[in-house]
Amino acid sequence: MTVIEALLAFILAAGVLTMTPGLDTAIVLRTAAVEGPKRAALAALGVIAGCLVWGAAVALGLGVVLEASDLAFNVIRWAGAAYLVWLGVGLILRPRERFEIAGDVAPTSGGDLAWMRRGFLTNLLNPKVGVFYISFLPQFVPDGVAAGPFIFLLAALHGVMGLVWFAVLIGATRPIADVLQHAAVVRWLDRLTGGVFLAFGVRLALERR
Length: 209
What we know:
By secondary structure, this protein is an all-alpha fold. The chain has nine helices and no strands. About 4% of the residues have low confidence.
């Protein structure tokens, strides 16, 4: 397999996986719908930053520890599960009454960068992302190519595809912005998303290798 063939095969496979709905998609969609496109973009950047950290860890060989050590896997798994459950319960018990439109910025704890941090931690504290990268990325390394730099290149390409997909998702929320200004709709979205986060957290806590 040549470098070009490897890159094309990876782009095809990773493109399909990127568009598969998951937790990252849920957090970006929810933020776009309830907080507006700016904070959704920041959450998306946080998610991509988490992917790049995982990609760098795999490229440097640190990801092998996660794959080989049950203790390391379980520590990260429980931390990620606790964070998702915390997010989910908070959204269910304290849903918002309104979402912010461009130019209508209400003060929130942590400011806009809090949404980037949320996307980053949601991705980084999911050990399945690390295990997935460990098992997926090395399959596309051609013979005779330095594995570390090429694996990080693949992770970066995955990040670019993720940004494009998130931009599509964020743009798709604009036509329904007027509907999402209604308090009942915002409360329903928060509680629904909280339920999704809670389910992901419980599933992650119960996950086994």
